[in-house]
Amino acid sequence: MDMFSYCESCLLPFSIRCHVGYIPSGQRVVGLSKLSRVADVFARRLQEPQRLADEISSALQSSINPAGVAVALQCSHIQLPETLNCKANLKISSKLDMQGWVNASVFSSSGVFKNEDHPFWDDFLALLKFKGIHMEETDPYHSLAQSWCPLRSLDILPCNGRNLTNVKFSPKFGVTQTSMIDAVTSIIEALGEDPSREELMGTPSRFIHWLTNFKKSGFEMKLSRNSLHMKTTNGVAGAEQNEMHTELSLPFCSQCEHHLLPFHGVVHVGYFGSNEGEVIQRCILQSLVHFYSVKLQVQERLTRQIAETVYSVLGTGVMVVVEASHTCMISRGIEKVGCTTATLALLGRFSTEPKAKTMFLQAISNHTATG
């Protein structure tokens, strides 16, 4: 069962694949929808993986009174934007791709499953393996790494924005961040949670740290051939003008300006070289992607901005394809887990030469197929 919950340490959504096994008692088998509803009830609150697994297991044990319940969760937590941008092999597939995320597997059990040597455990794990889910290397009783939330490693103030008179802030912290923390603390209270609960101490500060990654910069990117550090390919000047160059799977993480939730994926750039046979280094294109993605964005504008910036320098032909998974689509509203969105921008020769466009799309397809 695919679902989402929200990390209590930083308020960011995390992905869950929930697997439930149970041994009926008295030949009583429950409707499958009940299992999903019970899991969803506990996922729709501030959570951490092990507690979520324990709550699902306990609720099923008390409500349907089986001989035993086993719950296995595969959870994925998004990384900080700068971490995702370092994952050069990040790609998006037809399913929700969590490469570059922090992954954790947790187990919880009751009844006969409490005995780790019981053969039912082997049956449960074998059924998961039959579905391509390999969890044998995970200890069901000591499975969750302490580094589950990437933001927990930050040096965070424990005050949650309350009683700040005796707290010394660093000069760069500022009044603005303090008021933001206070606002997030109020939101947590409005959700019916206690901000002073040990697990929530520091949560507002971590969430603000995440948001400030997407603070709009006070300057615009102005590029020239010199600033792009372009290099000339070997051969006679102008000989490379008709050759298409591609840089595929440039990773990014951005923040949806409509819902303040992250979306992430990869950018593919195709372009024709200049008359001098110049090409743009991959690291420069990655910096360009990062510049436009680390702010409040929509995917369509991000795609167009990257294409226009490259085209303003080369002036020949540029095509940009952005593939992304939107947390706002899969953790709220329509909740279509596994959906991805692709957007295209074509300028110059790519907009007038269908063959060039087809060749670039085929290059992306071949790259994705080979990994």
Automatic annotation (TrEMBL):
EC annotation from Swiss-Prot or TrEMBL: 3.5.4.16
Keywords: Hydrolase
Species this chain originates from: Dioscorea alata (Purple yam)
Name this protein carries in UniProt: GTP cyclohydrolase I protein
Top EC class, one word: hydrolase
